[in-house]
């Protein structure tokens, strides 16, 4: 089996996963649907150690891509680090002093806070370890800062940054690693946060085949909120601004990691900002109880009501505390508690009611991709065992938002990641298809790709990987 490893400058540099495999056939147990053809690419962080110190935070591990390609019921696996500035700092310089989310002071990130143009020669290849997407006909890795990083879909080789051809901010802003794609309008929608003397939330769209961001609206804000994702419906864009906020001047003046500059101020409540997709005008601002979230599950309209389903935390401790990379596996008493909550916003009155759809702790939600922004019934998540006395992400759930019930998959000593739904080509019902995810078996030091029948919620196949793939973040299935 051919493989490669990174080049280390000294023996004091190591990583929890060092081996990189080229496209390698892997053994399948069970039956893969004959119609399945394409590539599943997942992104995520890898912990590295230099002189006994680790980049422990979940969002600060080095970006590694993992690709599973399905062709005629066969599966091949490829993995590769993104060759970023962080990668070079670790493996060429033997240092952990690279720009991070929670472990490195952020002054360098905002030293060009008021600059609007970054020359091509100055563009950085960021440690894009959160998600992947297709933009301008290219596959890219995404982070919350800097530009997307292009990679080859076959080899996963890093190809440089995707340099948007427009005048919106590039490096001196924050963005979401969860853009929404509208197949009907053939456009990608996202937002960015401009930090400065005058700060803004700016929504934009990118037409298929384009690398130009077209502004939709620009909203002034005095103290921006930390937001990881947002919601769309057929007619609206919705920002959920949590009471975890920052004074922008602190980002430039204080020598603190980025997230350590934010403060939890629950007295502010959580505000939904509803924007008309066509005009860009704000049509509603409505406040509800304080809570925090990384991920919106979905949103949709029902008459004059907008329903927003969100994985909600009671506060922001999950991100303001020392949320270390291996907490989910190695530190079962880490205080993570979530619930799926539905917030129903009535237009134009601005009243909000909310209810709990699923109270078991779970995260990394996905739905049928064709139903993004539309009425839906099923959500798929990774979460803890309903019987566990502590947090133990060892289960997969299919949540029925209509009946408020759930089906569970669980296996001993297994830790599944984000579940990806892939619809059958002849699907009639919403859950006609399969769900795939990467499962880590830490005690056995190996992983496998799990495949479930989405309707019956039973295992139909698994493909064993000759590596222990670390717990990761987000991925997408591409019909390449």
Distance between the termini: 25 Å
- Structural domain count: 1
Average predicted local confidence, pLDDT? 89
| Radius of gyration over all CA atoms, rounded | 21 Å
CATH topology: Methylamine Dehydrogenase, Chain H
Description:
The protein has 480 residues and is mainly beta. The chain has a single domain (4-478), classed as Methylamine Dehydrogenase, Chain H. It has four helices and 39 strands. The strands form ten sheets. Strands 5, 34, 35, 36, 37 and 38 form a six-stranded antiparallel sheet that branches. It is globular, with a radius of gyration of 21 Å. The two termini are 25 Å apart.
Describe the secondary structure blueprint for this structure.
Blueprint (H helix, E strand, L loop, with lengths): L3 E2 L7 E3 L3 E2 L3 E2 L2 E3 L7 E9 L1 E3 L2 E2 L7 E10 L2 E8 L3 H7 L39 E5 L2 E5 L6 E3 L6 E4 L11 E3 L4 E3 L4 E8 L4 E9 L6 E8 L9 E2 L3 E6 L2 E2 L2 H6 L9 E2 L5 E7 L5 E7 L7 E7 L2 E8 L4 H4 L6 H4 L8 E8 L4 E8 L3 E5 L11 E7 L8 E8 L4 E6 L4 E2 L3 E4 L9 E9 L4 E8 L4 E8 L9 E4 L2
Antiparallel strand pairs: 1-3, 2-7, 4-10, 5-38, 6-9, 6-39, 7-8, 9-10, 11-12, 12-13, 13-14, 15-17, 16-17, 17-18, 18-19, 20-21, 21-24, 22-23, 24-25, 26-27, 27-28, 28-29, 30-31, 31-32, 32-33, 34-36, 35-36, 36-37, 37-38
